[in-house]
Amino acid sequence: MAAAAPLLVKLVLAGESCVGKTSVLRAYAEPGPRPAASYLPTVGIDFKVKTITFNDTTVKLQIWDTAGQERFHTLSTCYFRGAQGFVLVYDITNSDSFQSITKWMNEIHEKADEEVEIILLGNKCDKETERVIPKQKGEKLAWEHGIPFFETSAKDNINIEDAFSLLAEEILNKKTYILHDLDVVDLNGSKKKRTCCKQ
Ligand SMILES: Nc1nc2c(ncn2[C@@H]2O[C@H](COP(=O)(O)OP(=O)(O)OP(=O)(O)O)[C@@H](O)[C@H]2O)c(=O)[nH]1
């Protein structure tokens, strides 16, 4: 008997520019040492696939990395539709990025499907001396929105695995995934029909 196709789950990273979305994704999906990175903004959109095992089932997490720069905003939010989970990221050394989280939450509620799971990350927690957002503020904001919260460091690989594992678990426990078919990109990376929201 042929093995069952792996389950596919679509996740999206969102948040302001330079908060570390790409770095968080790399730390999770491509762990291992890498040279100190100079900032290269995401242009448009990118994704990586990470395979995990959940209750003896193989699950492929397709994780979309959106561009935080304002000029890509419309494009980035196009990818919200069809996602089962969101990783919302701010930078603990940048208060604007924290203030914007409520705006991103509203965007998700407006443009994503109804039943989505969201987690909040306060990234760059290795930069303690430059911190402007106390951990309690992040916890309070997450509590107000009823979502889990982690302070993370993509640089030092702190809490990254735990954050994604929790998000995947919350989604898979709900069993709201019915995604053996992806309508955007198949797992070999070849493009299939691409859908986008109306602007
Ligand atoms: N110290 C420290 N620096 C980080 C961390 N995460 C990211 N950075 C740095 O912050 C800068 C921006 O990181 P990116 O991952 O490109 O940020 P982004 O949110 O994807 O940015 P956009 O593509 O513009 O949306 C880079 O110089 C990273 O090396 C972290 O946890 N700690």
In summary, what is this structure?
This protein is of the alpha/beta class. The chain has helices spanning 21-29, 73-78, 95-99, 101-111, 135-145, 160-174, and strands spanning 7-14, 45-54, 57-66, 85-91, 117-123, 149-151.
Task: Please describe the structure with a list of short key phrases separated by commas or semicolons.
Rossmann fold, alpha/beta, binds guanosine-5'-triphosphate, 6 strands
Describe the fold and architecture.
There is one protein chain. Helix content is 29%, strand content 23%. Helix 5 links the parallel strand 5 (117-123) and strand 6. Mean pLDDT is 84; it is low at 176-199. It has a single domain (7-193), classed as Rossmann fold. The protein contains 6 helices and 6 strands; from the N terminus they run E-H-E-E-H-E-H-H-E-H-E-H. The protein has 199 residues and is of the alpha/beta class. The chain has a 6-stranded mixed beta sheet with strand order 2-3-1-4-5-6, sandwiched between helices. It binds guanosine-5'-triphosphate. Residues 17-23, 37, 39, 41-42, 67-69, 123-124, 126-127, 153-155 line the site of guanosine-5'-triphosphate. It is found in: Endomembrane system; Membrane.
Q: What would the average pLDDT be, to the nearest integer?
A: 84
CATH superfamily: P-loop containing nucleotide triphosphate hydrolases
Distinct helical segment count: 6
CATH C-level label = Alpha Beta
- Helicity range: 25-40%
CATH architecture: 3-Layer(aba) Sandwich
Number of domains: 1
Give the amount of beta strand, in percent. Answer: 15-25%
Strand order of the largest sheet: 2-3-1-4-5-6
Can you summarize the main beta sheet?
6 strands, mixed
Ligands, deduplicated: guanosine-5'-triphosphate
